[in-house]
């Protein structure tokens, strides 16, 4: 059963599956790997030296080098125009590329046409498994690195990844190039094992087999492609051993297993392997202490302008979501943004954080112009945020969510991890300690290993704040952070916001809990139908007749009975009389 061919096919199938895994971990569905493999195989055979001239192993090594380069270059050529495509559109575009390559090779003279080209057999089971182990090692070391976490974040929620400072386009293209290089290596190994390489070896069925192998094995753990290849290769062998005709088994089994995995085991076979990651104990000290920060970012001095908005407007057709807004936030301020549902609060913070471009007016944040600057560069300038509807990375643990948040302030470690350099381990430990402190700061230190999707709604809101804090921002935008929290939790959040502002952090807070806003904020800005109807100190705004009529309720000129700001819950700033709740 475990003959030479079976061992080689398991290894080669695993390598090809890794070329799909390389893009699946970044949320991409590409079917162009068969085209990369075909180009690499025929180019290495046509350009590379003959084994009879330089020896079998040197010829294979040179051929592999040629194949990897051809696969990577082909991936760049295909990736640049298609990298913005998503889902089925990317799959169709890349499949069209693979089919175009196959037809081109069938009709080319230098490839031998449909009959193919004969090649000297060089690959042995040892060589095939060594290549598989090298590829597996690459992804093993990639997973826990900053680069690997960024790819996982893109897969889970691309918008949230951008807001954390991840350059999504660059990371997607790099994953695409890795897929092309690995597919190129597979094509060369296939050619030097089969003795005859033909365009039909890299047809649509081969592409689907590679994808199914990767999906059945699982894209959440690096060992998935190996598990998938071993399983799908061995089942037909077992069928053959017991006397069942296996000619139809492989395609039937591929389709059936893909359906079953999607329905009952979305994480593939690898999800059956328990993986538990715990956070290191958080060291004491203030999160804002200089010795604990990973970033070398210089934060604005107290009182310096952080956000400058002038005449800002955003239209959606005939709907004016935001109209002629002027706003200035200074370093160390906590500014509340309140108003009825649909008043334009979230649209305004989306304009400030660069998620949507303005229709009119100007906005400048920490030296950059959101809307004209990519979102990840706005984040790199020092803007971090939470979202109205929680945007966590659900399959990642709470700790890994916060580690993604530290993307901009931690150092890249992937290449150093490949070489086992001690500096990579030190940097990873520093990032882990930083993430653990952020979790402890919001009261989630004991939930570090829990997947984000398994947390309660209130804990998810706190986790999103911890992730935002991990970026060491100069401006923190909180969009309804107290949603789902009880009175005690909201009071604790108010105290946390106050202590962060006392450390120099500027905070823009959207919240419907008006009592919390009054306790926490130095100034309050009130929006209604996209326009600012009031701005000023908490007690000044809460008594404004326009605010009472539009949002707070009650008789004009008479504000509701709400608590005033708590001095202990916020830094020095505008004060107002009132009792603690």
Task: Give an overview in words.
There is one protein chain. With about 575 residues, this protein is an alpha/beta fold. It folds into three domains: about 5-200, no CATH class; about 295-380 and about 485-535, 3-Layer(aba) Sandwich (Rossmann fold), CATH 3.40.50.300; about 390-470, 3-Layer(aba) Sandwich (Rossmann fold). Helices cover about 50% and strands about 10% of the residues. It has 22 helices and eleven strands. It has helices spanning about 5-25, 35-45, 50-55, 55-80, 85-105, 125-140, 145-155, 160-165, 170-195, 205-215, 225-240, 250-265, 345-355, 375-380, 400-405, 415-420, 420-440, 455-470, 485-500, 515-520, 540, 545-550; strands at about 115-120, 195, 305-315, 320-330, 335-340, 360-365, 385, 475-480, 505-510, 525-530, 530-535. Strands 7-8-9-5-10-11 form a six-stranded mixed β-sheet, sandwiched between helices. Helix 1 (about 5-25) packs parallel to helix 6 and helix 10 crosses helix 11 (about 225-240). The longest helix has 27 residues, at about 55-80. The chain is elongated. The relative contact order is 0.11.
List keywords for this structure.
581 residues; alpha/beta; 3 domains; three-stranded antiparallel beta sheet; 11 strands; elongated
**Arithmetic mean of pLDDT:** 87
Total beta-strand segments: 11
From the spread of the alpha carbons, the general shape counts as elongated
Compute the CA-based radius of gyration: 28 Å
Q: Give the proportion of residues in helices.
A: 40-55%
Segments where pLDDT lies below 50 for 5+ residues?
284-292, 555-581
Tally of contiguous helical segments: 22
Strand content: 5-15%
Overall tally of structural domains: 3
For the sheet with most strands, the description reads: 6 strands, mixed
Q: Which class do the helix and strand fractions yield?
A: alpha/beta
């Amino acid at each position: 059963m475990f003959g030479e061919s079976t061992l080689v096919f398991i290894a080669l199938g695993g390598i090809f599956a890794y070329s799909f895994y390389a893009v699946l971990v970044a949320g991409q569905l590409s079917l162009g790997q068969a085209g990369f493999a075909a180009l690499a195989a025929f180019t290495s055979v046509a350009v590379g030296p003959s084994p009879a001239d330089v020896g079998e192993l040197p010829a294979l090594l040179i051929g592999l080098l040629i194949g990897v380069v051809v696969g990577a270059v082909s991936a760049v050529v295909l990736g640049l125009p298609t990298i913005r495509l998503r889902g089925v559109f990317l799959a169709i575009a890349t499949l069209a590329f693979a089919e175009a390559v196959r037809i081109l090779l069938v009709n080319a003279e230098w490839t031998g046409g449909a009959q193919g080209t004969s090649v000297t057999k060089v690959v042995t089971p040892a060589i095939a498994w060594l290549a598989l182990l090298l590829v597996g090692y690459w992804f093993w070391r990639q997973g826990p690195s900053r680069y690997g976490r960024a790819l996982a974040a893109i897969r889970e929620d691309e918008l949230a990844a951008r807001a954390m400072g991840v350059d999504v386009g660059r990371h997607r293209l790099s994953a695409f190039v890795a897929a092309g290089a690995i597919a190129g290596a597979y094509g060369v190994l296939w050619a030097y094992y089969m003795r005859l390489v033909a365009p039909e070896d890299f047809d649509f069925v081969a592409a689907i087999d590679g994808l199914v192998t990767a999906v059945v094995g699982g894209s959440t753990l690096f060992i998935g492609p190996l598990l998938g290849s071993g399983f799908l290769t061995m089942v037909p062998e077992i069928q053959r051993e017991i006397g069942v005709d296996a000619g139809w088994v492989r395609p039937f089994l591929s389709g059936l297993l893909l359906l079953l995995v999607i329905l009952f085991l979305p994480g593939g076979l690898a999800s059956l392997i328990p993986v538990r990651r715990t956070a290191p104990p958080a060291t004491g000290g203030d999160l804002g202490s200089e010795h604990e920060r990973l970033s070398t970012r210089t934060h604005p001095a107290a009182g310096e302008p952080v956000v400058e908005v002038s005449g800002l407007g955003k239209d959606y057709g005939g709907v004016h979501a935001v109209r002629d807004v002027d706003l200035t936030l200074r370093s160390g301020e906590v500014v509340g943004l309140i108003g009825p549902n649909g008043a334009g609060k979230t649209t305004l913070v989306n304009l400030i954080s660069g998620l949507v471009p303005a229709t009119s007016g100007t906005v400048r944040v920490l030296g950059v112009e959101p809307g004209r600057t990519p979102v990840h560069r706005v984040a790199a300038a020092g803007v971090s945020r939470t979202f109205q509807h929680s945007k966590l990375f659900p399959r990642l643990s709470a700790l890994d969510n916060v580690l993604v948040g530290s993307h901009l302030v931690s150092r890249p470690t992937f290449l150093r991890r490949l070489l086992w350099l001690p500096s990579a381990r030190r940097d990873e430990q520093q990032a882990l300690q930083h993430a653990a402190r952020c979790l402890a700061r919001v009261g989630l230190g004991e939930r570090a290993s829990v997947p984000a999707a398994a947390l309660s709604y209130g804990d998810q809101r706190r986790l999103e704040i911890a992730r935002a804090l991990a970026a060491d921002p100069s401006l923190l935008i909180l969009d309804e952070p107290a949603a789902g929290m009880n009175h005690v939790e909201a009071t604790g959040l108010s105290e946390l916001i106050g202590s962060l502002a006392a450390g120099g952090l500027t905070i823009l807070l959207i919240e419907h809990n008006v009592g919390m806003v009054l306790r926490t904020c130095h100034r309050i800005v009130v929006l209604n139908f996209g326009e600012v109807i009031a701005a000023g100190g908490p007690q000044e705004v809460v008594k404004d007749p326009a605010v009472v009529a539009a949002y707070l309720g009650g008789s004009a000129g008479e504000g509701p009975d709400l608590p005033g700001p708590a001095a202990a819950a916020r830094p020095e700033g505008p004060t107002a009389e009132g009792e603690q709740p």
